[in-house]
Amino acid sequence: MNVFSQSIRRSLSKDPNLLPDLANFTHLLIASDYSGHHQGCRYESYSYLIVGMGESWLSWEASRLSVRQRFKLAKRSFAYKKLNDSRKREALDSFLAASEVLAGLCVTVLIDKSITSMFDKEGRVDFSDPLLHPYSQFGIASFERLLRVVHLASFFVAGLSAPGQNITWFTDRDDIAANHARLTQLTSAWATVLSNYLSHPLGHLRCGTTESDNGTLQIEDLTAIPDLAAGALAEMATCYDKESHVPDGPLIVPPPNGVSEKTRSIIRWLSNSVPPLKRMIYVIHPVGNTSTLTIKRLQLHSGQAGLVW
Q1: Can you give the residue ranges of every domain in the chain?
Q2: Using one digit for the tens of pLDDT, what is the confidence trace for 266-300?
Q3: pTM listed for this prediction
Q4: What is the mean pLDDT of the segment spanning 223-235?
Q5: What is the mean pLDDT of residues 232-254?
Q6: Measured between alpha carbons, how far is 7 from 19 in angstroms, rounded to an integer?
């Protein structure tokens, strides 16, 4: 994570406006989703939307309800895997455009699946460690995912938050938050990890899932934004790999031929990284057959992509 931090600092030296300024908000909301766990996908993707609650939040609320009404979406979800009917596909661009008013950052981290563990050089988390006994029921793969999720969330909260801010995090209901007991353990793990990243005190910390929605699909729609980013980028990166033209330097190349139309729409939206909603993408690869990892920033330009160190 220190290397990750250095990479972001290098990018900030070239573009001081790369990250949003969220210091003036009293409350930050995080929504996160994850993709690429299925077979055939080369990368797992971890996507986070971190936004401040203020006037921009109220504007987004009005915009997303307007989109739902205009396209007669009722209770339909914008989840990446469920973009399977014409009405949702027709509404997708308008839904993504509505999120442009949010003040914050949508960041996705793609991790090569050949990296079995980011926390143990042997490639397996060791549950014989007494500190990890309470998490042994997760299984090695699920607990590895939980650690990645909470470390990345903690990393970005530490970098974007300000003293005294309240933080509420809504995560996807996957295996790491499948029920109340696992959500409690996720929250406990997050509080422990976050305390090691922070250099300033925060206010209240709360963690929930999309089940916390108030019936208006507000939380569902908020979480759909990182869900769409995670799904589209996992597909795009895997297609690049299959077509053997992943750029390894500051090159711009067309999107891979194999990506779906819904992914192309989301890529176009991700390429528009302008205030108030910023967008960032990072890719983590192993170096050869070693345990050393390399981190690259993926920049999108008008629907095209080039990897930048």
Answers
A1: 2-308
A2: 998 998 877 899 999 999 988 877 778 888 888 88
A3: 0.93
A4: 95
A5: 74
A6: 13
